[in-house]
Amino acid sequence: MRFSGFLSSAVMVILFVGCFMAVPEVVTAKHGGGVTRHYKFSIRMKNITRLCRSKSIVTINGKFPGPRVVAREGDRLVVKVVNHVPNNISIHWHGIRQLRSGWADGPAYITQCPIQTGQSYVYNFTITGQRGTLFWHAHFSWMRASVYGPLIILPRRNESYPFIKPYKEVPILFGEWFNADPEAVINQSLQTGAGPNVSDAYTLNGLPGPLYNCSGKDTYKLKVKPGKTYLLRLINAALNDELFFSIANHSVTVVEADASYVKPFVTDTLVIAPGQTTNVLLKTKSPAPDAAFYMLARPYFTGMGTFDNTTVAGILEYENPKNPENAPLFKPSLPAINATNVVANFSNMFKSLATNKFPINVPQKVDKRFFFTIGLGTNPCPKNQTCQGPNGTKFAASMNNISFALPTTALLQSYFFSKNGVFTADFPDFPLHPFNYTGTPPNNTHVINGTTKVEVLPFNASVEVIMQDTSILGAESHPLHLHGYNFYVVGQGFGNFNPKNDPSKFNLVDPVERNTVGVPSGGWVAIRFQADNPGVWLMHCHFDVHLSWGLRMAWIVLDGKLPNQKLPPPPSDLPKC
């Protein structure tokens, strides 16, 4: 009898995933209110055809997009990753706090060396205090172009959502498809200094849809019943593009962002940046209309470079239409590509639920303040080479003009075992050379590169970071992601941050809690978090092109005094460089 609760818990999760559970899951034992769930990820090449072109891509278990990982709050996940492809790889569990389990976070050369061909690594972590929609993806070079999938955290058993129980839950993943090998695309860009070739299509659950050549059969269709409430779990896994998304003739209610509940609000157009997730409730029409409805996504972009200016389409279909042959197919109208005001208004709608059951804990006082510029820059062209970046230079990207260089040994190992010479603890708290950040850019756009500088935080320090976009090589939005933490978005605005006037407008009552936030194009955003998770944590732009150009830095959060405030030693199978 003592196993009955354990079995029903396992059965409930398996019923939730139903036929789409693509990896074998073994539930082994109860522990501390949750269960341990084992998954196996085999990294293999797989021939896939899109846009009438076939190519071999890197996949997990031969699936594209990758398999769903489903668990409950409080569960422990044990995922064995075995690498059967020529590429090095690592897997990041995007948005998981990884409390005292930083060895399982996944970014290559930050918390681990990559998993080499023929090698394996077991990611072992407990989901603490989190429930909602996240995702996992490769965190090595541009491998996440095809290596990504949903990470769905259900509430604890006998716990309910703080909104109406949905009739059905549907993950929807946005991605990008390249006819070429994405690794070749970024390698060519880094060699020539030019911007990389853009993707050939966006995808919706791996399918480009009928607006692309030769893709009518590769269309995602969401079949719904009339008068039902559906929970759509939206995930932007695209490499380099923020997206507008809308369903024709339907509005949705936003209830969650980055696996944190928000005060519900209704919208007919969503904006979702790479690395962000958004849960929405879709109430279908009743009676069923004699029509079908496009679900469209296309980019939001304000920069100076090129981008994939195409539109991915899925179709919302009602069951048993009366006249399917002649039913009209309605199309939503999406904002202009550069509709920054739409993005700002949408971002300002997000507020934490902030109830007794789901409280927030935004730091009211700040121990450590930082001001980081976020933007592009250049590197000089090497001698005897012709470069194709701005004015014959190479494109670069930076935070506080530091273009972060990945080490050849993982930072976390270097820090934990006190190895010298891998990094320096002198990342600048403020810009070294202040300028009019959103005005006329300086003549010298060169970044400081070749350095691995980190910022060190005492355990449990309350931290405020102002992230300021710059106009160097064009103002644009940057989705900044912080590993190992959620943070509160306490303020945002356009122009240059004003340290005298802007803090008085900060929301310290119910700010949204996120793991990825868009730094507004030509503006700034303020975040706060409590440094209560010891380890080494990457913070970076979730546009992979900017990540490749160096728009990243790392925090070292020191151990606390108590045993449960210290990072344990690494597992024995931690990959070696």
Automatic annotation (TrEMBL):
Designated name of the protein: Laccase
Reactions the enzyme catalyzes: 4 hydroquinone + O2 = 4 benzosemiquinone + 2 H2O
Record carries keyword Repeat: yes
Similarity comment: Belongs to the multicopper oxidase family.
Places the protein is found: Secreted, Extracellular space, Apoplast
Cofactor binding, per record: Binds 4 Cu cations per monomer.
Organism the protein comes from: Gossypium darwinii
Signal peptide: 1-29
